[in-house]
Amino acid sequence: MGTCFFLILFYGCAKKEHVLTISGKVLEKATALPIANVSITLYANGVVQGVYQSNMIYIAGSTTSSDGSFKIQIPEDKYDNFQLRFYKNNFFNEKYVFSLNDFNHGKVEHLQWMQAILPVYLHVKNLVPYDDSDKLVLVVEELYDCQECCGKTSYQFLGTHVDSTVYCLSVKRLPLIIHKYIQKNNHPFISVDTIKSTNVDTLKLFIDY
Fold this sequence. Notes:
The protein has about 210 residues and is an all-beta fold. The chain has strands at about 20-30, 40-50, 50-65, 70-75, 80-85, 95-100, 105-115, 115-125, 135-140, 155-160, 165-170, 175-185, 185-195, 205-209. Helix content is about 0%, strand content about 55%.
């Protein structure tokens, strides 16, 4: 009587992990040139690693290369919303908000503009002859809106002994328009100056009246 041998082979099939890819470029707004070494962090809410998160939590990070490009890949999960946060020294922080619905075949591409910071010092001085009715109101107009920017407020100086410095932030390579409303020795007048800060890292302006 013959003997039969049966060889049974078992193959294990690992489930392929799906990933989400967020990529893009970071450019300077004023020059359209790429910005290297920008720190990029990705935050998300929704179901993260099996736990529902209502607040945005950190998921992953990256840094832009010499051509301003970046790529972040994360395991697919039941996310709701995302935030990309962009940070680099001497630039204004930026943020990009998107949702899971913005992915196309698991990918999102984004072009982010950033603005270089220009520190501004306005040195204001009331010159003799002066009197108690002297007054200067400075209103700064600019093309970029941020909480720390010069254009967020007006600056008022009253009386005789005025010798002070105002510090605020503007954007490098964008024009800064300064409106001056002056009352000097009971004579009112208005002037407007346009300042172009092309290649300076700090802008210092002396305003005498």
